[in-house]
Amino acid sequence: MKNILSMSQLSNEEVLNLIDSAIDFKAGKKSEIGQDKFAINLFFENSTRTKSSFQVAEMKLGMKEIEFEASTSSTSKGETLYDTVKTEESIGASVAVIRHSQDKYYEDLVNNHNLKIHIINGGDGTGQHPSQSLLDLMTIYEHFGSFDGLKVGIIGDLSHSRVAHSNAEILTRLGASVCFGGLDSWYTPEFAEIGPHMSVDELCQEMDVVMLLRVQHERLSAEENKNFSKADYFEKYGLDMDRVNMMKPDAMIMHPAPVNRGAEIADDVVECDKSYIFPQMANGVFMRMAMIEAVLEGDNAEDELTGQKCKIVLHK
């Protein structure tokens, strides 16, 4: 694969192969595929986990990072995203990890055949977040060994969450049943086509995985933020220890983070026995290693094919 842009782009087989590869990296697999190669992490929105774990993944693969800060880049002078990416490709970057506020920003890039650099989507607007979805899948797979028949509840700011969009789609495709919780207004027709809207108590009692989402205040309107009550939200939709005690013995609590303690999750739940929030973050490095390796391996395959064609021509 040349790029990794969305979960809909990946086949079930490719997803499972990436999970296997990430688990191998976690078990100690080594790869020098990134030796003498450069990566650029173009983050136009704030990030802690995604950016940091891509940086660590790149270093573990032997890559060097070209430093980039959006606030001091030429984008402030009107440079287009394409020209920024083409510039980094021209000075030697092999992989560009991009987070951007525009939904499907990558379409203009991949439709331009002048770009040879590999693009990995680090999150686009309210669209997709494939690396987060893949690390979530890895974490679930490690625990249950399968997706078929699992019940997954996603609770929170569904309509603004790229994690919700990515996970709901791929989990359903892999055989899980996905249900939703949170404000009715966030349960859009897109999610209604996938699964029902349930109360948080019902979800806690019935689900194998309870996946919480942060309320994305930066994407809410001024009126929505004005009317938002953290205490009321937590009472209706937050996960506290009383609700944790309703869950199945082997159920998982997940969250893509950042965590807003006291809003969608109680402080004492964040690191309780059922919580996999920090293991998710640890798995993120290994999954991102697998993703980078997968796009770089495409270069090796292309080189081998070119070599074979050359041999055929020389033989003739």
UniProtKB/TrEMBL annotation:
Pathway: Pyrimidine metabolism; UMP biosynthesis via de novo pathway; (S)-dihydroorotate from bicarbonate: step 2/3. It catalyses: carbamoyl phosphate + L-aspartate = N-carbamoyl-L-aspartate + phosphate + H(+). Residues 148-293 form the Aspartate/ornithine carbamoyltransferase Asp/Orn-binding domain. GO terms for molecular function: amino acid binding; aspartate carbamoyltransferase activity. It comes from the Bacteria. Gene3D superfamilies: Aspartate/ornithine carbamoyltransferase (3.40.50.1370). L-aspartate binds at K77, R162, R214. Carbamoyl phosphate binds at R49, T50, R99, H129, Q132, A257, P258. Keywords: Pyrimidine biosynthesis, Transferase. Residues 2-142 form the Aspartate/ornithine carbamoyltransferase carbamoyl-P binding domain. Heterododecamer (2C3:3R2) of six catalytic PyrB chains organized as two trimers (C3), and six regulatory PyrI chains organized as three dimers (R2). Catalyzes the condensation of carbamoyl phosphate and aspartate to form carbamoyl aspartate and inorganic phosphate, the committed step in the de novo pyrimidine nucleotide biosynthesis pathway. Belongs to the aspartate/ornithine carbamoyltransferase superfamily. ATCase family. This is Aspartate carbamoyltransferase.
